[in-house]
Write a structure and sequence with these properties.
Helix content is about 40%, strand content about 15%. The two termini are about 35 Å apart. Helix 5 runs antiparallel to helix 6, helix 10 (about 320-335) crosses helix 15 and helix 11 (about 345-360) packs antiparallel against helix 14. The protein is an alpha+beta fold. It is built from 18 helices and 12 strands. Strand 9 (about 150-160) and strand 10 (about 165-175) form a beta hairpin. Among the domains are: about 10-175, no CATH class; about 330-410, no CATH class. Strands 2, 6, 7, 8, 9 and 10 form a 6-stranded antiparallel beta sheet that branches. The protein has a two-stranded antiparallel sheet with strand order 1-3. It has a two-stranded antiparallel ribbon with strand order 4-5. Bound molecules: adenosine monophosphate and magnesium ion.
Length: about 475
């Protein structure tokens, strides 16, 4: 039986100003690495045999009903504006409506050059493809809004990067949409108000049908992004390239590049090799997302008749964002220490624990997970001042009900640790996909203690510490 995708391609119907028709470019020897069967079922996709899937997911066969396009967008990269970026190494095959009635994009990433490639080769190598596959699925399992991974296929063609000659691969990515802050910036920068209005109507209809005005849309996106970034902070996630083209309007985590999880909690942690000034450090993410929302607000201004009033309204919305993030942060970190309804008065209890953890350089994930255990005193012996903090905490917990269960649902037992991801990639490059499949399996149950995966929960030994991560572009 051949593969069936029930495509309905609303973005392609917007017309030529929004995208460029671009088929995926054929590769030499497609091979299927992985397919996400539960996700395919959710998307109402009928899969085929391994060979058919390899052809489709490497881009050699375009399924019936697809209308492959490269989407246009702009973006601020590390603060500098590029009026034209666009899909330089990805094509949107089309959209399907899932079993929940939600429209979802199906995109091939690494599928060859497009009119937006500039000097790039349009390709991806195996490492970043598997990294995004594992990380995005792990984020989903942790309950964080994110794009998903439907499939990975190898191309049989080498990709040339700084690191040398590497095996090529294609990721099939699923997103609520690929609408970005940069999508609006693309039209605003061209002062193409008609197209801007079209994309505004499209975004509202697709994601925020309740929004009546550009201000409503701005506040809705701000709400989702505030919640998203607070969730990142709660699990120690560092996106690494929070450029406005990598900030999704649906509120999903998108464009996994040099992202990483911190081991020791330190607010200024940076892994990305290209983030030399720490613009996208762990703790800066809440300030950066506010800045990105200010850019989104600017791109909405041309839609407004009264610009002065628009500026006042949008400024107020953006200025309200830090308090939204703070409220989400307090709720999330409160839950991490077992509090159902934390108030500002609980903030010192949380901050003091983080401070003690930072000074003792203990593992962020494992320390929070251990707090709810009864047999973890060895974990806390390393933390100077822990006993005094513990007494305050216990006193506060007398007002809480089932705090242990709340903590175990808020503190993952296992995260995709950087050194394990690097190890998995090295094995895959050598032809062994066992670590990839094992990570995927174990990370699908992040809030469950899994004694047989103890090796994956350990922080890196000194020689295993990953100091820098790369985009792989
Ligand atoms: P990113 O920082 O990965 O989100 O990418 C920023 C921009 O560079 C986007 O327009 C990408 O499409 C483009 N890009 C990244 N890698 C490549 C590549 N290998 N070939 C062509 N364009 C690329
Ligand atoms: Mg990007």
């Amino acid at each position: 039986m051949s593969m069936i995708f029930p495509f309905d391609n609303s973005y392609a119907r917007l017309g030529t100003g929004f995208s460029a028709a671009q088929a995926p470019v054929k590769v030499s020897a497609p091979q299927l690495i992985a397919v996400n069967r539960p996700l395919a079922a959710e998307l109402n996709i009928t899969l085929g045999d391994d060979d058919q899937m390899a052809q489709v997911f490497a881009g050699n066969a375009v399924p019936d009903g697809a209308q492959p396009i490269a989407q246009a967008y702009a973006g601020h990269q590390f603060g500098g504006f590029s009026p034209q970026l666009g899909d330089g190494r990805a094509v949107l095959l089309g959209e399907v409506v899932d079993t929940h009635g939600q429209r979802r994009d199906i995109q091939l990433k690494g599928s060859g050059p497009t009119p937006f490639s500039r000097n790039g080769d349009g390709r991806a190598w195996l490492g970043p493809v598997l990294r995004e596959y594992v990380l995005s699925e792990a984020m989903h399992a942790m309950g964080v809004p994110t794009t998903r991974a439907l499939a990975a296929a190898s191309t049989g063609d080498p990709v040339h990067r700084q690191e040398g000659k590497l095996p090529g691969a294609v990721l099939t990515r699923v997103a609520a949409s690929h609408l970005r802050v940069g999508t609006f910036q693309f039209f605003a920068a061209r002062q193409d108000v008609a197209a801007l209005r079209q994309i505004y109507d499209y975004t509202r209809a697709r994601h925020y049908p309740e929004a009546q005005t550009p201000g409503d849309l701005l506040r809705a996106v701000i709400g989702r992004q505030a919640a998203l970034v607070a969730q990142w902070l709660g699990i120690g996630f560092i996106h690494g390239v929070m450029n406005t083209d990598n900030t999704s309007l649906s509120g999903e985590t998108i464009d996994y590049g040099p992202c990483a999880f911190l081991d020791v909690w330190h607010p200024q942690t940076v892994f990305s090799s290209i983030d030399r000034n720490g613009r996208y450090a762990y703790d800066n993410q809440s300030a950066v997302i506010v800045w990105n929302m200010a850019q989104f607000a600017s791109a909405l201004i041309p839609l407004m008749d009264n610009q002065d009033r628009a500026i006042a309204e949008f400024t107020e919305a953006v200025n309200a964002m830090p308090a939204l993030i703070e409220a989400e942060w307090l709720r999330i970190f409160g839950a991490k220490i077992g509090l159902a309804d934390p108030s500002q008065e609980d903030r010192p209890l949380i901050d003091d624990l983080l401070g003690l953890m930072q000074a003792a350089e203990v593992d962020f994930t494992n320390t929070f997970r251990a707090l709810a255990r009864t047999d973890a005193s060895d974990t806390f012996e390393q933390i100077d001042g822990f006993d005094a903090w513990h007494a305050r905490w216990q006193a506060r917990l007398t007002r809480e009900g089932d705090w242990r269960a709340r903590m175990n649902a808020a503190n993952p037992a296992i995260i995709p640790r950087n050194h394990r991801i690097e190890e998995m990639i090295a094995a895959a490059v050598a032809g062994d996909f066992t670590p990839f499949h094992r990570l995927l399996d174990v990370l699908s149950r992040p809030y469950t203690d899994q004694p047989d995966a103890a090796d994956l929960t350990q922080p890196p030994a000194p020689h295993e510490v990953v100091r820098a991560t790369f985009c792989g572009t």
